[in-house]
């Protein structure tokens, strides 16, 4: 393993404004995939009127990949690829200056079908209690000291790999980091000690999918809820026992969703599978899942939706990219936008404001509404594709494009 903390000549910083951006008192950290609650919700200082343009504070070339930048206090952490290395970088949130950089060599041969999207990484790291946990394109799980960048432990790549490599983001719950590594014929869904990387429990009932897991209390039991290659499962958080499973596949075998919990219901989504809500209940010796509602009028492919006041807002692959609002209590489709909006979108909610950064580098701001697609403003936030989720907090938007990280502010 090669490790370095020196500044890379390839890491170019353009500091467009040397003073740090103002941070409102209610600004939140963005410590993991989809933010503090793993649901795409954040706090944001919504302006009385939206400006014609966003303010660009700084831009840094950090390397290739689609990981979300993490915001913790006055630091931003970025996981990316530079040449044959996977790299974790800590930057000053106000200026974009590099605080530390740690790299390890992890070359691999790409699946030709994924060449358009490049060599990743596509997994977002997680920050918890002074540690960073990353999951590389070949299923390498690494723990870093967030203060210094020191690698604390690393679980090497398994022999088997998912056909399209990895995109799942680590989940930290208590003293365990939860991850699904490996590929067909040899995979391991496990909870690993945050301090040592040693396995607390593992489950090998199916190979991984590409969506990220969540943890929720259902039926009186804390569960890890996730998609696998051919299933949706609930695994006991304490001991790794499989509680329940449901068959679930998509035509392209690329289930990339993070499950959504609404009350006592789990929301299941995937390309060409529509949306389904079901309840999980314990029974005599086994757990049961029962459908509550289903609709084929809206669907999710790689976009993860956000929930505001019981309404799911998302971007369907239907009609070549169509925004929608669905009542999660009954599955009614409240509205759909005109088609051909985008192929993919990374969505964040802040109160009644919804940010949608499309893969074409355009950010659409719209209001949560039960009656119509209520677009407020559109901004260009990059000069290349934007597949990564943004980190949004206070009046700041940290946007990762193919190779650059940019801080935008709303003044």
State the helical fraction. Answer: under 10%
Task: Give the integer mean of the pLDDT values.
Answer: 91
The second-level CATH architecture is 7 Propeller
Low-confidence stretches: 1-26
Instruction: Estimate the global geometry from the Cα principal axes.
Output: globular
- Cα-atom radius of gyration: 20 Å
Task: Give the total of beta strands.
Answer: 33
In what range is the share of β-strand residues?
A: over 45%
Please indicate the count of domains: 1
Commentary on this structure:
There is one protein chain. The chain has 411 residues and is mainly β. The protein has a single domain, classed as YVTN repeat-like/Quinoprotein amine dehydrogenase (Methylamine Dehydrogenase, Chain H). It contains no helices and 33 strands. The protein has strands spanning 13-15, 55-61, 70-72, 75-82, 85-92, 98-105, 126-128, 131-135, 141-145, 151-155, 171-173, 176-183, 186-193, 199-203, 214-218, 221-227, 231-236, 242-247, 260-262, 265-269, 275-282, 287-295, 306-308, 311-316, 322-327, 333-336, 345-350, 353-358, 362-367, 374-380, 391-393, 396-400, 404-409. The strands form eight sheets. Strands 1-2-33-32-31 form a five-stranded antiparallel sheet, with no helix packed on it. The chain has a four-stranded antiparallel sheet with strand order 3-4-5-6, with no helix packed on it. A four-stranded antiparallel sheet has the order 7-8-9-10, with no helix packed on it. Strand 8 (131-135) and strand 9 (141-145) form a beta hairpin. The model is unreliable at 1-26 (pLDDT under 50).
């Amino acid at each position: 393993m090669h490790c370095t903390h020196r500044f890379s000549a390839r890491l170019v910083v353009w500091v467009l404004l040397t003073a740090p951006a103002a941070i409102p008192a209610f600004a939140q950290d963005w410590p993991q995939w989809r933010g503090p609650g793993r649901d795409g919700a954040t706090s944001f200082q919504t302006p009385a009127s939206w400006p014609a343009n966003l303010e660009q504070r700084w831009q840094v070339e950090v390397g290739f990949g689609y990981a979300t930048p993490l915001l913790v206090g006055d630091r931003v952490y970025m996981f990316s690829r530079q040449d044959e290395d996977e790299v974790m970088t800590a930057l000053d949130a106000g200026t974009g200056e590099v605080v530390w950089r740690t790299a390890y060599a992890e070359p691999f041969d790409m699946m030709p079908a994924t060449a358009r999207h490049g060599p990743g990484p596509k997994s977002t790291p997680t920050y918890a209690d002074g540690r960073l946990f990353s999951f590389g394109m070949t299923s390498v799980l690494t723990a870093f000291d967030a203060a210094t960048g020191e690698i604390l432990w690393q679980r090497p790549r398994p022999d088997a790999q998912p056909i399209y490599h990895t995109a799942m983001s680590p989940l930290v719950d208590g003293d365990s980091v939860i991850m699904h590594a490996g590929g067909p014929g040899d995979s391991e869904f496990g909870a690993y000690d945050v301090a040592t990387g040693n396995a607390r429990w593992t489950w090998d009932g199916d190979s991984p999918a590409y969506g990220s897991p969540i943890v929720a209390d259902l039926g009186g039991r804390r569960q890890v809820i996730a998609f696998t290659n051919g299933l949706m499962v609930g695994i006991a958080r304490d001991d790794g026992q499989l509680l329940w499973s449901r068959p679930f596949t998509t035509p392209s075998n690329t289930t990339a969703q993070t499950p959504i919990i609404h009350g006592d219901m789990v929301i299941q989504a995937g390309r060409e599978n529509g949306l389904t809500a079901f309840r999980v209940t314990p029974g005599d010796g086994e757990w049961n899942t029962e459908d509550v509602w289903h609709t084929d009028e809206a669907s999710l492919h790689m976009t993860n939706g956000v929930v505001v006041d019981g309404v799911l807002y998302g971007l369907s692959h239907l009609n070549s990219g169509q925004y929608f609002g669905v009542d999660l209590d009954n599955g009614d489709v409240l509205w759909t936008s005109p088609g051909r909006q985008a192929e993919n979108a990374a969505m964040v909610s802040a109160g009644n404001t919804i940010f949608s950064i499309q893969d074409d580098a355009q950010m659409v701001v719209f209001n949560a509404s039960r009656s119509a697609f209520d677009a407020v403003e559109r901004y260009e936030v990059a000069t290349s594709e934007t597949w990564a989720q943004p980190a949004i907090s206070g009046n700041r938007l940290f946007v990762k494009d193919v190779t650059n990280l940019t801080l935008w502010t709303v003044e």
